TrEMBL record:
The keyword Transcription regulation applies. This is Cro/Cl family transcriptional regulator. SUPFAM superfamilies: NagB/RpiA/CoA transferase-like, Winged helix' DNA-binding domain. Coiled coil: none annotated. Residues 27-94 form the CggR N-terminal DNA binding domain. It comes from Geosporobacter ferrireducens. One of its GO terms (molecular function) is carbohydrate binding. InterPro entries: CggR_N (IPR048715), NagB/RpiA_transferase-like (IPR037171), SorC_transcr_regulators (IPR051054), Sugar-bd_dom_put (IPR007324), WH-like_DNA-bd_sf (IPR036388), WH_DNA-bd_sf (IPR036390). Belongs to the SorC transcriptional regulatory family. Residues 96-345 form the Sugar-binding domain. Keywords: DNA-binding, Transcription, Transcription regulation.
Length: 345
């Protein structure tokens, strides 16, 4: 306890006495992180991505190379093993320096959830924050896995990024099965739950099942399709989901992905709908506004789950996160710093 207190005092002193040191550290962390995520990358592209002059970038790149954090080849710059280890260390330092541990505690109490994990930065301003969300969430997911676990995953950009950032590990044969937690939504194949489930299963050395149906299918048609053994097998596996990984979507955006008319979307907004999940639209208090046709994890199933990970980025999702957080206190929430601060407002 005393050590933590002294460390916090040290951070405060550094901010007051040598603020330029902290600014330089964060700037170099951002440069190193961008090289890591986009390697190999040239100086010109690095300069454009960071909005910094090439002369400044040249000096910083030379410094990182001299310290052994990066190597420069003909095709561009890459991080070394030392550079990647340093990134992890700096990430934890910046997390504490920004007081994010305290903000995580506040989020947990405000939303009454099991755990909050906050990634430094604002995803609306820095695209790399979404990659960090993917990296952190995928690592936490792996920590929950046990032999024969059935994992459910929804679709969307955040879930696709988590699958991309999952470190492939086929050495541990745990017989993991990954299943889409909802049917297909939208037109982007790479963001569909089926695609993400297959990608995650491959990274985890497991197997997967597919749901060959749109999410908004009617119950009558679903009953008829259930006679197909492949569809029945997949739907039965949905009921076996033990760990659920899902993205948190705003009501208006999700309604648009479902192809609803603008009049219907405005009607939902007038009824204070802020989030959509598990066959319902919810207001910010987690109260049901409207029921919809959907397949996959039901609301009752969700409320019974002990291992659920919700991930979201962007300040505009604050009310949606607040709504979904009301549904199950076992939720582990992974969000960016900008969204966390917006929730606390």
């Amino acid at each position: 306890m005393r050590e933590d207190f002294d460390l916090e005092k040290l951070f405060d002193l550094q901010k007051k006495i040598i603020p330029e040191l902290i600014n330089t550290l964060i700037e170099r962390y951002n440069i190193l992180r961008l090289i890591y995520f986009h390697q190999p990358i040239g100086r010109r592209n690095l300069s454009a991505a960071l909005g910094m002059g090439e002369r400044v970038i040249r000096g910083e790149v030379n410094f990182l190379k001299e310290q052994g954090f990066i190597e420069i080849k003909a095709e561009g710059m890459n991080t070394t093993e030392l550079g990647e280890n340093t990134l992890e260390t700096l990430k934890h330092f910046i997390h504490r320096f920004k007081g994010l541990t305290s903000i995580e505690d506040q989020i947990e109490k405000r939303l009454n959830i099991k755990k909050a994990i906050i990634v430094p930065g604002n995803a609306n301003e820095d695209p790399m924050v979404l990659r960090e969300i993917g990296k952190v969430t995928s690592a936490y997911l792996k920590s929950l896995l046990r032999p024969n676990t059935v994992v459910g995953v929804t679709g969307g950009r955040t879930m696709a990024t988590i699958a991309e950032e999952m470190v492939e590990d086929t050495t541990k044969k745990m017989n993991i099965t990954v299943i889409p937690a909802r049917g297909g939504l939208g037109k982007d194949v790479e963001k569909q739950a089926n695609t993400i489930a297959a990608s995650l299963a491959k990274k985890l050395g497991g197997s997967y099942k597919l749901l060959y149906m749109p999410d908004h299918i009617s119950k009558d048609i679903l009953t008829s399709l259930y006679e197909d053994p492949h569809i029945r097998d997949a739907m039965d596996f949905v009921q076996k989901i033990e760990v659920l990984l899902f993205g948190i979507g705003r009501a208006d955006k999700m309604a648009s992905r479902r192809g609803l008319s603008q009049d219907k979307i405005e009607e939902l907004i007038q009824h204070s709908a802020v989030a959509e999940a598990f066959g319902y639209y919810f207001n910010k208090n987690g109260e049901i506004v409207e029921e919809i046709n959907t397949i996959g994890v039901s609301l009752n199933h969700y409320k019974e789950l002990k291992h659920i990970i919700g991930a979201a980025t962007g300040v505009e999702k604050a009310e949606a996160v607040m709504a979904i957080s009301k549904l199950n206190p076992n939720m582990v929430l992974v969000i960016d710093e900008g969204l966390a601060i917006e929730i606390l407002k």
